[in-house]
């Protein structure tokens, strides 16, 4: 009798755990789909809709910089950027590429977390996440071809992959730190 109750309890817990994993995976798929829609909706916006230069001009009128900007210059694609000569273009470029890194870091973490929730091997999750990032980024760049004053660049797909990899790295590092902190806390509490 007691053995039957224990077996039934274990069976119920396993079913509940499986249900929880399925619901968690479905939730992660919905979050991924929503995030991809956000990315693609931004791809459909024109340069004029996305530019931050008007805000930069307003902000710079309020804040007076009391020093000369360094002469940082580089070329990305066909465009030259210079902090001293065209600071607004430079700042907007940095903002846009940082946005690419952030947006695709979040996408990679969502995919990675969803796959890890399904108890898949870590390397498989990393590879699958980066493949999803590459596919979505490629479609994103394709869509940008049709937006006014926007350019499509294979370099941006590379930036997106770097963002995805950094996102996964930060996520795994944070989870590891949290797990270590919890295990230290549990090992330091005296057994009663």
Automatic annotation (TrEMBL):
Q: Which UniProt keywords apply?
A: Membrane, Transmembrane, Transmembrane helix
Q: Which InterPro entries match?
A: Phosphotransbutyrylase, VanZ-like
Q: Locate the transmembrane regions by residue number.
A: 22-42, 98-115, 122-139, 159-178
**Domain (VanZ-like): residue spans on this chain:** 29-173
Q: Does the keyword Transmembrane helix apply?
A: yes
Q: Which domain of life is it from?
A: Bacteria
Q: What is this protein called?
A: VanZ family protein
Originating organism: Paenibacillus xylanilyticus
């Amino acid at each position: 009798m007691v053995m039957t109750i224990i077996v039934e309890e274990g069976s119920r817990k396993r079913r509940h755990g499986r249900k929880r994993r399925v619901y968690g995976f479905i939730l992660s798929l919905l979050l991924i789909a929503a995030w991809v829609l956000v990315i693609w909706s931004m791809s459909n916006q024109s340069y004029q809709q996305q530019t931050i230069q008007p805000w930069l001009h307003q902000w710079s009128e309020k804040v007076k910089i009391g020093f000369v900007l360094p002469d940082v210059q580089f070329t990305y694609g066909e465009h030259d950027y210079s902090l001293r000569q065209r600071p607004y273009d430079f700042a907007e470029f940095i903002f846009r590429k940082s946005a690419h890194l952030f947006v695709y870091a979040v996408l990679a973490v969502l995919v990675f977390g969803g796959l890890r929730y399904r108890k898949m091997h870590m390397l498989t999750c990393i590879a699958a996440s980066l493949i999803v990032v590459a596919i979505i980024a490629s479609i994103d760049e394709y869509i940008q071809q049709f937006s006014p004053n926007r350019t499509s660049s294979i370099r941006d797909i590379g930036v997106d992959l770097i963002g995805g990899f950094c996102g996964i790295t930060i996520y795994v590092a944070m989870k590891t730190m949290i797990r270590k902190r919890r295990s230290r806390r549990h090992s330091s509490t005296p057994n009663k």
